[in-house]
Each structure stands twice: as C-alpha cells, then as structure tokens.
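Priority: medium. Attachment 1 of 2:
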C-alpha cells in the first residue's frame, strides 16, 4: 500500500498498480511490488503492508488497473 500525493501516483508504473483511491488528503495505491515502489519513491511516499480491509476497499471502490 503506497500513500502519497499525485506526484507519487504518476511516478509508479501503471503495471505495478492494482487499485487506486483518491481522497482529499492524497492517494492510496495498492501495488503488486512494494520493494520496487520503495526503491523508486524513497522518502516521497509512505509504504505500508496492505490489510485485508485495504484490499477489499480498493478492489470494490477504487479505480481498477489491468493486471
């Protein structure tokens, strides 16, 4: 789970994004490769382990991306 602003969302490869949720305080992105996201974004984003709730919300209500 990657959290940050729109700059973070644009920096990630679309193929690594499984779901995105945009809100008033930033963007949450479910990614398939946290290690690559951490290497690419460094300190520009918060990268956490996704909970089951995060996955369910992003898959049900977020923008979906092709696998």
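Attachment 2 of 2:
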């Amino acid at each position: 789970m990657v959290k940050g602003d729109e700059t973070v969302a644009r920096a990630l490869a679309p193929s690594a994004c499984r779901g995105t949720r945009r809100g008033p305080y930033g963007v949450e992105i479910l990614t398939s490769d946290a290690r690559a996201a951490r290497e690419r974004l460094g300190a520009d984003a918060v990268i956490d382990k996704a909970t089951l709730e995060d996955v369910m919300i992003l898959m049900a209500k977020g923008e979906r991306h092709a696998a």
